[in-house]
Amino acid sequence: MNDPHRTPTEDTRFRGITVRQEGQDRIEVHGEGIPRVTLERDPASEVDPRTAIGTRDPDRLTLRIDGRQARLAPAKGALTRRSYRVDVEYGGARYRLVPDSVPSSRLTRDGVHLGDFSCDGDETVVAEWKEGAEVEPVDASIGYALASAFGTGGQPLWMMIADGVSSALP
Question: DSSP secondary-structure letter at 125?
């Protein structure tokens, strides 16, 4: 984490993409042919150690794409996978990153599935673009930034209930 000489991730469509985290204060995504994205947490805000960017409070976060501010709305995160969704509005489009399996989350633009991202909330992000999807460079920038900032994937509710029941048994 925080390696200034980090080797870019080789994306199948957009070549080298670098994700850099500066503690829980700032995440930056850049690469040849994609717009630069920065996501910053208000340094005066309380830090949540379970979230790479340190908070899910949209009032404490600023997302910029090529220097222009975008609307960011992470859900609070509770029991269901959907409660961990993150929404972005930018350039007239609505993006959503939402967990859809244990390890990964689905990225959509205006409801169209673009690809799946996997990340543990660090600088290592893997994108698998949906075959036939018309993916734009800004889609990649947003997906990589959100996956790094908030992590991906989640257990289904039934699995969490089963874990809770089994841990309560003697």
Answer: -
The pLDDT tens digits of the residues spanning 94-148 come to 999 999 886 789 999 999 999 999 998 789 999 999 999 999 999 999 999 999 9
Taking alpha carbons only, the member of 61, 50, 1, 56 closest to residue 25 is 61
Q: Tokens representing 77?
A: 């995160």
Max distance between CA atoms of the chain, in angstroms, equals: 56
pTM, entire model: 0.87
Q: How far apart are CA 11 and CA 125, in angstroms?
A: 10
Cβ atoms of residues 33 and 137 within 8 Å: yes
Dihedral over alpha carbons 128, 98, 52, 9 (to 10 degrees): 10
Name the residue type at position 100.
D
In tens, the pLDDT along 30-79 reads 999 999 999 999 999 999 998 899 999 999 999 999 999 999 999 886 56
CA angle 87, 113, 140 (to 5 degrees): 65
Contacts of 86 (CB under 8 A, 6+ apart): 72, 73, 74, 75, 96, 97, 98, 146, 149, 150
